[in-house]
Amino acid sequence: MDTLLNNLDLFTTGFKNTGILFVFSAVFALILGTIVAAMRVSPVPAMRAAGTVYVNTVRNMPLTVILAFFALGYPKLGLVPISFLSAAIIGLSLYTATYVAEAIRSGINTVPVGQAEAARAIGLPFLPSLLLVILPQAFRSVIPPLFSVFIALLKNTTVAAGFSVLEAGAIRQNLSERGEPAIVGLLWVALIFVLLVIGVLSTLQRYFENKWRVAR
Amino acid sequence: MSSLLFDVPGPKARSRNRVLSVLTVLVVLAIVAFILLRFAQTGQFTAAKWRIFTFPLVQQTIVTSIGATLGAFATAAAGSLVFGILLAFGRLSDRSWISRPCYGITELLRAIPVLIMMMILYYGLPPLGVHGITPFTAVVVGLAAYNGSVLAEVFRAGIESLPQGQKEAGYAIGMSKGQVQRIILLPQAVRSMLPVIIAQLVVILKDTALGFIITYNEILFQANYFGTQSQYGSPVLPALMVAGVTYIVLCLLLSGFAKWLELRLRRGPKAIKAAPPRIMADA
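The joint structure predicted for all components is written out below.
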């Protein structure tokens, strides 16, 4: 308990940055993932191909490599300098977006074909039928997989600790510099993550599942 | 399926799709060209930056580090499969003093980030008097614990999705519960859940790269080391390109093997057509 209370500043900063990483990456990944999923079911062959190549490339690369690209490689390109925090957000968003896209695409496949046919029958073109008819239903049925993706994202934010972002994963290093025992700090971090995942995110998931249950 | 989202395009839609296709290709090409241009302008493609990879010793080191990645992957994969099966059987046990702790362990391990688990093993345990923890053991045990708990849920879902008759038939010919689980339910569950299991194995392969952060000598760690060699012009991006391509190739090989295995099993004599539940791999 002392380790937590004496270094509360470290834990607050760490988990605040974890929160920033999580919220921004989740929003960007959701937007990008939805666009990629829409591209992968679109009638335009080139868009489908582009979406597939993106998903297959990024999904087969470790998150650590992607973060290394943005944190260590990007500064070498002489473009607009970005902070390590922004680099981590970009990397996490690009990586998580592929999982979001796959989850939404599997959700689109669960919507009955009749829905798409009905949308076309009343004259809706592809994009409006996707946005007004298919996606709202697909989102409801992908709440559980989408939340597992977000839980994975929350845990993945710790990887940014390897790339100079002071977040939950980096607390240990800073504790060691203050001469505190590593194991106690790490167990506190683990406990907070358990509370966040089981306590907060799983509760939110149950709430949304009940609220948006599809009546069929 | 997704192709039913739109009708077979007529002449008008075809020409529109063609225009959109060309536009997409142009946008993608523009992005790729911009990246390549930046790479070229900052001299990432010059021979000097790639010279380090021409030395036999460096090439040997890369092969060794690929071996290190694969070694950690194979050990962790075997460990997580065994641990996952044990946890799944534990959760399905009729005795609540077995099933409850197993449920607790599964939920707990799934909620802790793998990296934190590896750090607990690597930085946390030695000061408590636990000796002999190398980066390798930390990576393998961390991965096996986390992925084992994910696979346990996969196995359990697979077993529970099987038709009730399978279990009853087993009991009817006088098998014990253990025999039914082992001989009848598990093989069928593994078959129907194979795509998810393989996807999780790909996750294990990718997560060995976390060893980079706790100084395990794998592909990314080596790449980062080469990237800092200033007498060869600090080839960070070339080294990362090598690492990235290596991981993609390894993962695609694993997925390809999985597809081949799945086809083989499909052709097998006793393939059961039970609809597998929708479960996705957990990154």
